[in-house]
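Board notes (copied after class):
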Amino acid sequence: MLSQGETTRPSGSQAIERAAQLLVLVLDQDRPTTLGELARLTDLPKSTASRVVAALERNDLVQRDSARGAIRPGPALLRFAQRGVDDTDLVELAHPVLSTLAAESGETINLAVPAVLGVNHLAQVDSRHMIGAANWVGRTVPFHPGANGKVFLAFGAAALPPGELARFTPHTICEREHLMAALDTIRAVGYATAIDEIEVGLSAVAAPVRGATGTCVAALSISGPSFRLGPSQLDHMGALLVEQAAVLSTRLGYPTLERG
C-alpha cells in the first residue's frame, strides 16, 4: 500500500525531510547500512528510499560500498568531520550544557581545551555563591595540578603536546606507579579531581568531552571552595559532569547517547 507521497510527486519540503531523515540514519549507524534497512527504519517504499539515496550520493553526502552496496557517510561529510570544531563553535555548542551544570551545581563551571603551554579556559559560568572561584577565561594553567589537565593526561587529548605526560612523570618508581594508578582511576570512574592543588582552599572536578572520532577534545569542570566541595560532593558533581559531557560529546558527533 503506497503512501500519498508515493502516488503523487512529493513537495520540496517533503523531499528535504526525507533526505534529512535518511542522512541522519546513515550517520547514526555503527556500520554501513543497506537500502532495505533505511527503507524499513523510515517506513518509506524502497523505491522512494532509493531515489533519495541516489540524490544524496550525487552530492557526495553518502557513498556506497563497491563490494556490497552498503551505504556510508560520503566524502563531503568526511571532509567536514576532519576539519574539527573550532573554539568559537565549541563554546556555542557547549552553552546549554554549561547552563545546565551551573543550575544543578550552583558552582563555577568551565569549558577548557589543551594548548601548548597548558590548559586554556574558553568559557565560564560563575557560581551563584558570594564565595566562588575566580574568572579563568583566557588563563592558561599547567596540566598536572588541575582537574581539567588531569583529564587531558588520562584520556590522551588530541591536542596534548607530545611528551607532555612524560614531562610530569616522577623519576622514582614509587612516584611513577602512583601517577599511573591515579590516571587509571580517572579513566575508570570517568572524571578527575583536584583538591588544594592549584591553590589551597580550591577544589575541582572535571570530565572529558569527546569529538566525532572519540578523541578527547575538551573538558568540563566544576570548581569551588573546598569547604563546599568535599569528597562526597565531588563524587556527586563528577557523576553530573560525566552525564553532561556525554551530552556535549553527542552534539560534537560522538555517538554516546541513543537518539530518540
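Comment from the instructor: Residues 1-9 have pLDDT under 50 and may be disordered. The chain has two domains: 4-80, 84-251.
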